[in-house]
Design goal:
Layout (H helix, E strand, L loop, with lengths): L1 H13 L5 E8 L5 E8 L2 H10 L3 E7 L14 H16 L4 H10 L4 H15 L4 H6 L7 H13 L2 H56 L7 H37 L1 H11 L5 H22 L4 H11 L3 H15 L4 H8 L4 H13 L2 H56 L1
Antiparallel strand pairs: 1-2, 1-3
Helix pairs in contact: 3-4, 3-8, 4-5, 7-8, 8-9, 8-11, 8-16, 9-16, 11-12, 11-16, 12-13, 13-14, 14-15, 15-16
Length: 417
């Protein structure tokens, strides 16, 4: 009997019931008519949940799906960060874990995230702990996240640990947003410049070319060059698009499949003139923030470094952290190992040394992380301020140059007349 029950439980765990949306009508505790929608696995469980809320349901039915189906957005790391903060807040307020999941799920606009939270809640109700339930969804909760939750559960301070994880996730996502801000703006402007230039060359320049044909005079070299570019682009525009598409797909697939190619990109971006410095500071901040969070959670330093190596986001620092882990496991102090790699700034090494000597390593590492996060923020703001006039000047030269090239023959014709 026990074996059969265990098998049944495993089968149920392997194929969890699908969460659906039900519409309901009924009476509340005061006898007032109320209605609404609620997610659940079946009508029986939905009615039981409504009874818990003091509602007598007269009518419960599965909500009919629209022809296009419910639009589900992709679950982003920011969604996970917000969920972690909400769960930490609920548990600090004394709300039970299962009920916290219900409240957070009900208030989430993203249907995909809501379904994920309800599946995790069902696993917890089935007897699993939070870490095990999260581990079943590695696409959204990585090993570092799960190990920190597990550490919090074992120490009996889950709400405190969730608060630490929430801070870590929020800082990490804020850092990513700053990097994206530094990259997106110039790329967007360059794309717009390329589109505008293509439109001028394909649509506007031919009109002027017909006009110049009636002049019967030799065109200026600059104008002739622009006309030649226009003719070439009109003939080969499809080849330009095809080459761009092929290059983009090849780059994406090679990056996805080749570890050596990804490593080469990681090394290259650190050598870029301005962006490389921003990425360098962001990597140091991510290293310090991750190590501070894991070490403060009570994870041994060697195990914490194993988690940190995968969170640095750059192969240069991943290899450096792996070397540090080997050195520390053999008895070398962390600050000596960091200095020996030659890739960490002196300030970070000195702060680490102070933390080791004073017994406040996690505090010192948090200060390092905060310092370099601020440095990234200032660098991004400075880069944006510097790029704005440069980009405006670039657009002026490109668009203005095309316009001047088209009107130059007209100006010369006027001077001859």
């Amino acid at each position: 009997m026990a074996t059969a029950a265990a098998q049944a439980k495993q089968t149920k765990k392997a194929a969890p019931a699908k969460i659906q949306t039900f519409s309901w009508e009924g009476l509340d505790k005061k006898g007032n008519k109320v209605k609404g929608e609620i997610p659940g696995q079946n009508i029986t469980l939905v009615k039981a949940e409504l009874r818990k809320q003091g509602i007598v349901a007269n009518k419960v039915k599965k909500k009919a799906a629209s022809l296009l189906g419910e639009r589900k957005k992709k679950i982003t790391p920011l969604d996970v960060a917000i969920f972690t903060r909400q769960l930490a807040t609920m548990m600090k307020a004394g709300v039970p874990l299962v009920q916290s999941f219900e409240i957070v799920a009900d208030g989430h606009d993203n249907a995909s995230m809501r379904d994920l939270l309800l599946r995790i809640k069902s696993d917890i109700e089935g007897g699993n702990n939070l870490a095990t339930s999260l581990q079943a969804h590695p696409a959204y909760f990585d090993d570092l996240f799960v190990s920190l939750v597990e550490s919090g559960e074992q120490s009996g301070a889950l709400e405190t640990m969730l608060d630490r994880i929430a801070i870590y996730k929020e800082k990490t996502e804020a850092l990513k947003a700053k990097i994206k801000k530094a990259v997106k703006y110039p790329i967007a402007v360059l794309v717009v410049a390329a589109v505008v230039t293509a439109i001028l060359l394909i649509k506007v320049v031919p009109t002027f070319q017909e006009l110049f044909g009636s002049f019967g005079a030799e065109l200026p070299a600059f104008t002739q060059m622009v006309i030649n570019m226009s003719e070439w682009l009109q003939t080969w525009w499809w080849a330009v698009l095809l080459i761009g598409f092929v290059v983009g797909v090849t780059f994406s697939e090679t990056k996805k499949r080749s570890e050596a190619f990804r490593d080469a990109i990681d090394r290259f971006v650190l050598k870029l003139p301005v962006a490389g410095d921003i990425i360098y500071k962001a990597t140091i901040a991510r290293y310090a923030r991750t190590l501070a969070t894991t070490f403060a959670a009570g994870v041994p330093l060697v195990e914490a470094l194993e988690s940190v190596s995968g969170a640095t986001g750059n192969v240069v620092y991943k290899n450096a952290v792996n070397k540090i882990r080997d050195d520390v496991s053999s008895g070398t102090q962390l600050n000596f190992s960091m200095k020996a790699t030659g890739v960490f700034p002196a300030m970070a090494v000195q702060m680490t040394a102070i933390g080791e000597e004073s017994g406040a390593l996690d505090t010192m590492l948090e200060k390092v992380a905060t310092y370099y996060e601020d440095e990234v923020d200032n660098a991004v703001d400075g880069l944006t301020s510097l790029l704005e006039p440069i980009i405006m000047a670039f657009l002026g030269v490109v668009v203005g140059g095309l316009i001047v090239a088209m009107y130059l023959p007209i100006f010369q014709l006027g001077s001859v007349v």
